[in-house]
Automatic annotation (TrEMBL), chain A:
SUPFAM superfamilies referenced in this protein's UniProt entry, alphabetically: FAD/NAD(P)-binding domain
All residue ranges annotated as the BFD-like [2Fe-2S]-binding domain in the record: 477-526
Protein name (database record): NAD(P)/FAD-dependent oxidoreductase
Compositional bias (Low complexity): 561-577
Taxonomy, superkingdom: Bacteria
InterPro entries: BFD-like_2Fe2S-bd_dom, BFD-like_2Fe2S-bd_dom_sf, FAD/NAD-bd_sf, FAD/NAD-binding_dom, Metab_Enz_Cyan_OpOx_G3PDH, Opine_Oxase_asu/HCN_bsu
Keyword terms: Oxidoreductase
Record Pfam families: Fer2_BFD (PF04324), Pyr_redox_2 (PF07992)
GO function term, MF aspect, one: oxidoreductase activity
Domain FAD/NAD(P)-binding: 18-361
Automatic annotation (TrEMBL), chain B:
SUPFAM superfamilies: 2Fe-2S ferredoxin-like
Keyword set, alphabetical order: Oxidoreductase
Keyword check for Oxidoreductase: yes
Entry protein name: (2Fe-2S)-binding protein
GO molecular-function terms, A-Z: iron-sulfur cluster binding; oxidoreductase activity
Organismal lineage: Bacteria, Bacillati, Actinomycetota, Actinomycetes, Kitasatosporales
Automatic annotation (TrEMBL), chain C:
Gene Ontology cellular-component annotations: cytoplasm
Compositionally biased intervals (Gly residues): 379-389
Recorded GO MF terms: oxidoreductase activity
Protein name per UniProt: FAD-binding oxidoreductase
The keyword Cell inner membrane is annotated on this UniProt entry: no
Sequence ranges assigned to domain FAD dependent oxidoreductase in this UniProt record: 1-354
Top-level taxon of origin: Bacteria
Basic and acidic residues bias (residue ranges): 400-410
InterPro entries (alphabetical): FAD-dep_OxRdtase (IPR006076), FAD/NAD-bd_sf (IPR036188)
Disordered: annotated segments: 375-410
Record keywords, A-Z: Oxidoreductase
Amino acid sequence: MTDVNDVNDLNDGVRDRYDLAVIGAGPAGFAAAVTAADAGLAVVILDAGRAAGGQFYRQPAAALRAARPDRLHHGWRAYTAWTGRLAAHVAAGTINHLTDHHVWTVERLDADAADGRGLAGAGSATAETAASPGTLFAVHAVIGAGGATGRAVQASAVLLATGAYERQLPFPGWTLPGVVTAGGAQAQLKDSLVVPGRRVVVAGTGPLLLSVAASLALAGAKVPAVVEAADPLRYARHAKALALNPGKLIEGAGYAATLVRHGIPVRPRHVVVAAHGERRVEAVSIARTDRAGRPVPGRERMITCDALAVGYGLDAQLEIALELGCGTRREPDGGWVLTVDAQQRTGVPGVWAAGETTGVGGAQLALIEGELAAHSIAATLPAGGFAVRAAGASRPGRAMSQTAQPSAGDGGETGSADRVGPVAAAGRSVGSAARPGRKVAKLVRRRARLRAFADVLQQVHTLPERWSDNLRADTAVCRCEEVPYAAVRDAVTDLGATDSRSVKLLTRAGMGWCQGRMCGTAVQCLVGELTGGEAKAAPAARPLACPVPLGVLAEGAFAPAAPASGTSPAPAAAAPPHAERPADPPD
Amino acid sequence: MTGTPRDLVAARPGPEFTVRVDGRPVPALPGQTLAAVLWAAGITAWRTSRVTGEPRGAFCGIGACFDCLITVNGVRDQRACLVRPEPGDEVRTRD
Amino acid sequence: MVGAACAYYAARAGLAVTVVDRGPVAGGTTGAGEGNLLVSDKEPGPELDLALRSAQLWEELAAEELPGGGTLGQVAEYEAKGGLVVAADPARLAALTAFAAGQTAAGVTARPVDGDGLRALEPHLARDQAGGVYYPQDAQVQPALAAAHLLRQARLAGAALRLGENVVGIDTDKEGRVAGVRTDRGRIAAPAVINAAGTWGGELAALAGVFLPVMPRRGFVLVTAPLPPLVRHKVYAADYVADVASDSADLQTSAVVEGTPSGPVLIGASRERVGYDRTLSVPVLRRLAAQAVALFPRLAEVPAMRAYRGFRPYMPDHLPAIGEDPRRPGLFHACGHEGAGIGLAPATGFFIAQQLVGEKPDFDLAPFRPDRFEADAAAGGGVPYGGSETGPDISPEIGPESRLDGGADR
């Protein structure tokens, strides 16, 4: 057994220190890595997958030798263009792509970590003066899912591009084998060329459902119905944002055409109220909902199937970000994402974020955000990156203006043109670098347009308001610890739980293997309902972003000041030489 | 109109091999995840839940939910949706 | 937990009780601990006497029948599993054995165990340990459930529970006696106020104008994936006792390993005084993991699934503050139990209730006098509030810090 096809050799050129560590090799991550490397930074990507792409551009295993993987993908040309550039950087040694690396935490190492000062917030000191030691992070990973080896790399800056997983709501029968997440069905199809059943009902809410149903149908599965909780009439309220994104509409129309071609009915304003079966799902009951989102009595009907692919939107993976202290906000659909400014900076010096972590909006938006983040990082890091600066060299021009980072307190010169979304905490400037290049300005406009479109999707595809009406006392809310709805209810009404955490302490809901990733949304909603909306909502902290074998954790425990396994600390004055970089950015 | 996922992407996988699941031979293609191998063999449940003893299999399919835990070559609690079996692997569904 | 116990015994004594907490039940250190009910880690003295008395009360509480069926012990996962303290080498074993002899003289049941005995008690323990001492009185409870059910029993006895409500002031009368509390929702008149704010007890005392040096002592706990039974008792290294007793602000770690009824193994214990810094400390986690693997080598393959952190209410002499404050009549303190609050809660609540109804407690509470640090305050020494020991999380509220994550996992 191996976890990957191409396990990295432990001495595969991993250097002691990088300018930028990118966590996640989905669209945001690879776009950022390539852009930053183009600008001359030494970049490392750590990703759990075995090839760049993330979940959206998940690729068939190489050994399956798929001649036409594009048939399972939208936006294939963008993917091949970016990954071609990525491959060139990897070959040149300017990007180290560490596959099958599961990052469990990112640790701040710089002396300023404790009092919150650092690179981006270093007062009036410009980046060029390099008087401040800047930020420094150690990224800790386990190699292989359940692997027995760990690795840590150090970097001056971190880009969080950790993506999202699918949001779920419990209903009777949802633990039956054959009930899978819509995204999971898609992932296993793209990756390993299998479908979860012969007759697969697709249900939940959100644009992913159409894409999944189309893929399953193309791959030979019968899809008896797409059961969509939302009311499509709600799109009519957002005509402008839709009209500004013809590409997104064409993408949706493509899926719809596939559904029509395969005779797949879409049932809007319907929800799955139960899955039935003994050892696996054999049928599902769906029901029409009324205006309040409540299933209409007597309007249920049964659909036979051998699989159900279900999902209610996406939840961003925020574990690493929350431990670093990044700020969060809630999206229109209730999900938590990171607060970033127009340059994709989080409130934590040295930490940028892009893609679904900063707002669920799809691959195109993630690519743009990744690119913008990289431009900001390149403009922020000491000229030429850490190592070149240490060696006293200066850098030739790069893609973006070398104007110093706006410092804290100059929020007055915020440019409104590139201002998107919520503003970073702490009132830092949200302007981009003072003279963004034309390219950046264009990216900023496209980001705003796609973000507006994503907001529309979220406002249309909210959770069905009365989903909990379907729960029975014995319906498992938490799959891992098998906590029934009645236990969650009693914890709130009888034992004094007033938030998700105290429900967890009193019921174990969210305490199991998945750490509440599957039940977190449901528990938070239930606590809100049961306390009359007074529940204090907050994103769940998970200090370990993934399981870490104790033997891996124990490595180097008592070594004096050892930062990590396999690497040695690189004092600023004696940085290792970097590999050569392109003298000029390709674009 | 109905094909297979392999037809769709014009895959020409390497030679099929066998993994043993509770002693029973199950065909696998190189590169596939164990969850995919099991799904392809019509197996959707391979774990028994700890409290109520219900059958469980893959749910999230991307390594987040840990419902698909399985023992491979004696190593417990592997995520079937992530591990990729090799010829001769011994898989146990009840541990 | 301490507040729940105070409410329980006071309500049972017939008093009208209102419990106010800015967070949920068990939202503070109670929800971030392992639920130790230990006598083994305490040297002879007032704290050990309190622990022995509390162990008896825990046994009684565990046997209490609940109206919904079952006992308090069953729902709160009370386990009289016993503790096993392990010494790695003969020198440590000699020190441990001498320590245990002193405890035995103070009323503790302690049984020396040789190498073979260790293996009989814990088959998966590392082979190279010199020996240890077994303490059958050590027990375990799931602290959040224990606190919630004890509070539920208090409510059945007439207590009122007000959650999500901040105490922002203490009212006093003309003579300086306590007259009640002010909260963000109004006033609650009461001739007696109990400060059971745990790690935040110093802030509540300050609201009443008295000095009480409670400081946070941070701890991390690692939680493994659910396992088949591997660790039977509460097992810890002999070094733990020295760490608990240490006055240093620096990091100390010593392995404390135990299985839980739900399957995961809990791994503690670290102690460091860093204010309310919540940053995940990778070096601390590494040390905890290494020490646990040294005790139980099979744990090396086992994944840590999560970690949580909390802040023990530390006082400079490691003793809690229990009883009425002579500087502010009507104010009773029941806080500062450091890492022993779950174990010491019943005795604390029991004696506070005795004081409240005017009985003389049948226990010498003098070592726990809340005004014993008055000299430090007067000298300007002692422990500052809002100084380096306290982080930005401090606010003039009582009750648990509700931003804690994780929690007891059993």
